[in-house]
Amino acid sequence: MAKITDVARRAGVSPSTVSYVLSGKRPISEETRQRVEAAIRELGYRPHAGARALAGRRSNVLALVVPLRPGIHVPTVMQFAVSVVTTARRHDHDVLLLTQEEGEDGLSRVADTALVDALIVMDVQLDDPRLPLLRSLDLPSVLIGFPAAPEGLTCVDLDFRAAGEACVEHLARLGHRSVALIGSPPEVYVRRTAFAERVVQGFTAAADRSGMSSAVHPCEPGGARALAEQLLREQPALTGVVVHNEALLEPLVDAFGQLGLRVPADLSVTAICPDELAASVRVPVTSVALPSAEVGARAVELLMKKLAGTAVPESTLLAPRMTERASTAARTLA
């Protein structure tokens, strides 16, 4: 069976252009339209909407698109997936989990099969190449994450910029003047992953407002000890750290301890992570909760409303919720 990507290849256009020709949602030049229509006829392509009409009913299946790219923390991602699955079951829907990195082609392939009624898309990038196709598909979709230009999309997530700000503001109130952000692995920033970039924006903006010296350090798994040593060399006045890297939280606290820094007497540590992780560290960590259960549930509820033809807000940003624990204290003046 021909797919939309086959039509695009034959016509020499992108899959999103084929979708625009089929849906009429965007103006397409007559010459391009004729090429696409000729390719459709030659390949015998049948749009997924037609296949769905022939089936005469919905599939009651949602697709959760979670490309397992380098640098992501799989246990945290699976928390979102569990929330999506359990909420979908309450609405008598199953969930098809898609983990391969396929971009537009993967989304088109799923849409072509008519196996799913709607899409939930994770690991959103600021300039995500999947967005034009998502805007053109007849399938309803919700993004867990906010691209740089969210117009015409339905997005839900924690307000990661505000979360980064909240961590720095907490340290500023305690009198800390030199702070560092321990971020995700470097490849996450190379992809311009939206949530990671927004934490950096919030961290930097809050530090600048408070007149604090600050630095951002992406870090690979297993790099806790080397990074702790680097921070002590490069920021000898450092007394506050924000960790946005779940895999490194406990190893970092241990590494600083091995280097002679007591938490929180010498170094205050905050994090953006699941509550249960923050509470389980040897020194329980003051943290902004990562509300995976709520975000996943909201994404499904938004999709159910869209499937029912009900209008939904384009943007749903959850305010950060901080819990103070034993890892932060007022800065001790030398």
Task: List the uncertain runs.
Answer: 49-56
Give the CA-CA distance, first to last residue. 73 Å
- Which structural class matches the secondary elements? alpha/beta
Percent helix range: 40-55%
Q: Shape, please?
A: elongated
Hey, roughly how much beta strand do the residues contain?
15-25%
Our count of helices gives: 14
Mean pLDDT: 91
Largest sheet: 6 strands, parallel
Series of H and E elements: HHHHEHEHEHEEHEHHEHEHEHEHEE
Radius of gyration: 23 Å
Q: Going across the major beta sheet, what is the strand order?
A: 2-1-3-4-5-11
* DSSP strand tally: 12
Describe this structure in words.
There is one protein chain. The chain is an alpha/beta fold. It is 45% helix and 16% strand. It contains 14 helices and twelve strands. Strands 2-1-3-4-5-11 form a six-stranded parallel beta sheet, with helices on one face. Strands 7-6-8-9-10-12 form a six-stranded mixed beta sheet. Strand 9, helix 13 (275-280) and strand 10 (286-289) form a beta-alpha-beta unit. Helix 1 packs across helix 2 (15-23) and helix 11 (224-234) crosses helix 12. 46% of the residues are buried. The model is unreliable at 49-56 (pLDDT under 50).
